[in-house]
Amino acid sequence: MFQNFFPDKMVRSTYDIDFEKLYKDGVRGLIFDIDNTLVPHGAPADDRARALFRRLKDIGFACCLLSNNRARRVEMFNKDIKVNYICDARKPSRANYEKAMKLMGTDKSNTVFIGDQLFTDIYGAKRTGIANILVAPIHPKEEIQIVLKRKLENIVLYFYKNK
Predict the structure, then answer these.
(1) Residue 112 region, left (φ>0) first, then alpha (ψ -120 to 50), else beta?
(2) pTM to 2 decimal places
(3) What are 39-61's pLDDT values in tens digits?
């Protein structure tokens, strides 16, 4: 039952991912959640995020932001990043994961999703058939509904780590 929520891979931070290896392994598209995956909740793109996306573009990746946030939030973050984005994504619905791949010109075989939440980010990627990486949340301050979900995620992660 919990296996539907198990990530393909877990890393401490988005900024610890070996993107050069992913590219070498044939990945061409990266879909990212924003809040607590790239920056703290509600924060604009910082120097680290801007440098990451410059690097990803230099490597040759197509990128797309996939967020359940409203347009204003996503556009504010993307102002300096300048990649494809989808707001009000309704994750874990598959539709916008598929739309992101279409925007990037990629498919399930060469796309990876990166996010910090099991029940939206990772579950949606798994339902769509996309490889995925779970990262630890950047900042502990979160909205109450996410705090409650984190308690349930900890149960799932217990079984994931002990499988």
Answers:
(1) beta
(2) 0.88
(3) 998 999 999 999 999 999 999 99
